[in-house]
Amino acid sequence: MKGSKTRALIPLGIFLVLAALLFYGLQLDPRKVPSPLVGKPAPEFDLPSLKDPQQRLDRELLLGEVSLVNVWASWCPSCRQEHAELLRIAREHGVRVIGFNWKDDRASALLMLRQYGNPYTVSLYDPDNEAGIDWGVYGAPETFVVDPEGIIRHKEIGPITPEVWEEKIRPIVEQYRARNS
Amino acid sequence: MKRRHHRPLLAGMALAGALLAGTAQGYTLEEFTFEDPNQFEDFRDLISELRCLVCQNESLAGSQAGVAQDLREEVYAMMREGQSRKEVVDFLVARYGDFVLYDPPIKPSTYILWFGPFVLVGGAGLLLWRAIRRKKAEPEQDLTADERARLQQLIASRDDEQRD
């Protein structure tokens, strides 16, 4: 008799497991596709600087210090939304933020920086998605955390909010900073 | 009064016209030209099997998104250079992950996806088979003599009630 009672609980157990799985599935955002580049060296690039068309920037730029590489464009509303947070992170935490201006035009991009402030130590300029494909960029904003050896440690898809910074990005930045010093 | 009936028709025609004009203005694959027509077929097949990451229910062939256009051009350039289908697919997977493939590869992280349904159906089948076998092995028990007598009594009393 006892055996059949526990047996009767099996469907309930299956239901609970299934419900938990489906509930977990509801929290996932299918637009956020994990990048295969995390844990790998940042891809090579050779792009002009946004401010100075004569200046070429390459992968060397990323070495020696933790950087946030922030993919942005003036046509992207979420980029404007995260702009203040990037300014704050650069100012208050002294994090090097490198801009990756993507599929944009120089004049509008520079205008946006003049209007909203410039959190970037320097900004790459990639209007034709030359390097963007190598970095697996499929939208803006996207932010890569690159360690001092030039290895990608995290990719954040979507705008950086104070919560995203505190919970996801700051721990990684601090981990690689500590290791370096 | 009669004229009113034409309105939905006119509206429908206007709508159809707008939709047709819309598709005609969309992008076409004709900008991608190959010397060998077979290569164009290969190109079209390949980009139909790759997923656009921006609008995830569309293939690279069908998407109007800017990134999809860039990737079409990239695939086109690689094929013009004579790179194989596998080289193109590997190039995209290395950058965007397995997600660009409509057919995910079979590897440990996708085992559940590929084999889960068969395991579930197999498990359910096994349970069903066991249940049937058990029923066959021990058929419903017959009534005891006492129960049979009580049953007769009940039926008899019911018949009496109906006759009243």
TrEMBL record, chain A:
One GO MF term attached to the UniProt entry: disulfide oxidoreductase activity
Keywords: Cytochrome c-type biogenesis, Disulfide bond, Redox-active center
CDD domains: TlpA_like_DsbE
GO biological process: cytochrome complex assembly
Gene3D superfamilies the record matches: Glutaredoxin
Membrane topology, from the record: Single-pass membrane protein
Name assigned to this protein: Cytochrome c biogenesis protein CcmG/thiol:disulfide interchange protein DsbE
Organism name: Marichromatium gracile (Chromatium gracile)
From TrEMBL, chain B:
A single GO molecular function term of this UniProt record: metal ion binding
Example of a GO biological process term: cytochrome complex assembly
Pfam families cross-referenced by the UniProt entry: CcmH
CcmH/CycL/Ccl2/NrfF N-terminal domain residues: 19-154
CC terms in the record's Gene Ontology section: plasma membrane
Leader sequence segment: 1-26
TM segment ranges: 111-129
Keywords for the protein's UniProt record, in alphabetical order: Cytochrome c-type biogenesis, Heme, Iron, Membrane, Metal-binding, Signal, Transmembrane, Transmembrane helix
Alphabetical list of InterPro entries matching this protein: C-type_cytochrome_biogenesis (IPR051263), CcmH/CycL/Ccl2/NrfF_N (IPR005616), CcmH/CycL/NrfF/Ccl2_sf (IPR038297)
Protein role: Possible subunit of a heme lyase.
Family per record: Belongs to the CcmH/CycL/Ccl2/NrfF family.
Record protein name field: Cytochrome c-type biogenesis protein
Native species: Marichromatium gracile
